[in-house]
Amino acid sequence: MSTPPHASKLADGDTAIGIAPWPPGLDLSREHLCFITGKLAAESLGRVVAKAASELGFAYTIDVLPINVAALMTPGWVARQWRPPAQATRAILPGYCQGDDVAFRHSATPIHRGPRDLRELPGWLGGSAQRGEDYGEYDIEILAEINHAPRLALGQLLAAADELRRFGADVIDVGCDPDGPWSGVGEAVRALRDAGHRVSIDSLDPREIQPAVEAGAELVLSVNARNRHAAPDWGCEVVVIPDDDLSVESLEATCDWLEQRGVACRLDPVLEPIGMGFVESLKRYIEIRKRRPQSPMMMGIGNLTELTDVDSAGVNVLLLAICQELGIRSVLTTQVIPWARTSVRECDRGRRLVHYALQHGVVPKRLEPELVMLRDAQLMPPERAELERLATQLKDGNYRLFADGELLHLVAASLHLADADPFTLFQQLLASGPEGRPPKNLDPQHAFYLGYELCKALTANTLGKQYRQDESLDWGLLTRPEVSHRERQARGQQGEEP
């Protein structure tokens, strides 16, 4: 009998299954799934699973363990309390059931950890992820410019370069100032090269370019009729731009002149900002590609992201899509203006997204969650009737917070408060105790916690994001993981049963 794909081998030769990832493309019609839950979630889970089973065609069992809140389960506790039904082919734990899965290492039934929100179960079971195994491939190179490099100390320059490389930059572009040659350019380029960086030099001045290429710069930005006379002496590839008239003809003339002298060229017709000839500049890229279908090209996309009052991610993806379709295989970006300060990371994700879309002939939708930052791709607001029912079932005074897009909700045993204003909601809570006094469990630490969570919930309602108590809001690639209140408590009570 072969080892199942989710299993690993223990040192003694036993098969270790543990908690396995959900297998994509599973034929659910041949499965009997056992869902493990607690008392409070059993009814809601039953409704969700029944609907999913009718749509996806699987058989199921729901095992309700002797605990009210399923989120308090641990794998060790479940292993002691539960035995898989004989007909079950797979078992699914609640998403919040965290901890060491060693308790399941000898289980003959594959065990999986489901999503944290049971309303996500249908999509999770059906393998809703649309990305193929080859997602992540790309062929667009990112040049990340360090602006005003001469003004930085060498240590600052190296630190900036290291950060840009970590974010996805392939080449560090050393941006020079226009007011004269930088005497330290050779030292700076050499230090970057010694640190393992690929380097380009961004200057029109041959007095800066020559020492930079001698120190190891592999690419020169930029060359036109004014400085092309020096390019044959540099011995490296150059980016050719139009003359001051921005004409395709002047760009081609410089390219022809250089190629006749053995200089490798990369063509950049220059992207203009909105209001300064943006559409006409796009036409130049299309025209050059038609005239020179095999020539390497580059687009300086920072001209748009830095000079447009809009968050940069969408702009970057759109420009990368244009580059992908036109065969422009390098982009120059920078991240100086605050709204574009994560452009390199956005470009790194964006180039993978557009590459996959073109390679597979699909629209770039539901493929790259890290680029959906301001608003969430999917919202599942709680039903208010469900919250009312929850308040009648709870036996403890712990506060559960919810956001439905309009109102903030606070639920505890026999208590359901709701308001759009967190201050009003908190005033309601202060008056909810005996004789209109604050509840006994509302100490300063608890009040601070509720204030913090209500702030997140209000932000979610304002922007159209999913709020889950004790979890970070999802900001895509900008998400900052946080240790939840529940996890902090669990760490302090490690070893205790729920």
Give a description of the structure:
With 498 residues, the chain is of the alpha/beta class. The chain folds into 3 domains: 8-125, Rossmann fold, CATH 3.40.50; 141-365, TIM Barrel, CATH 3.20.20.20; 384-492, no CATH class. The protein is built from 15 helices and 18 strands. The chain has helices spanning 42-56, 75-81, 121-125, 154-167, 185-194, 206-214, 248-260, 278-291, 302-305, 312-326, 343-360, 384-393, 422-430, 444-463, 485-492; strands at residues 8-9, 15-16, 19-20, 32-37, 59-64, 90-93, 111-113, 141-146, 171-175, 199-202, 219-223, 237-240, 265-267, 298-300, 330-333, 400-403, 408-412, 415-419. An 8-stranded parallel β-sheet has the order 13-12-11-10-9-8-15-14. Strands 3-7-6-4-5 form a 5-stranded parallel β-sheet, covered by helices on one side. Strands 16-17-18 form a 3-stranded antiparallel β-sheet, sandwiched between helices. The chain is elongated, with a radius of gyration of 29 Å.
What key attributes describe this structure?
single chain, 498 residues, TIM Barrel, eight-stranded parallel β-sheet, five-stranded parallel β-sheet, 15 helices
Briefly summarize what is shown.
With 498 residues, this protein is an alpha/beta fold.
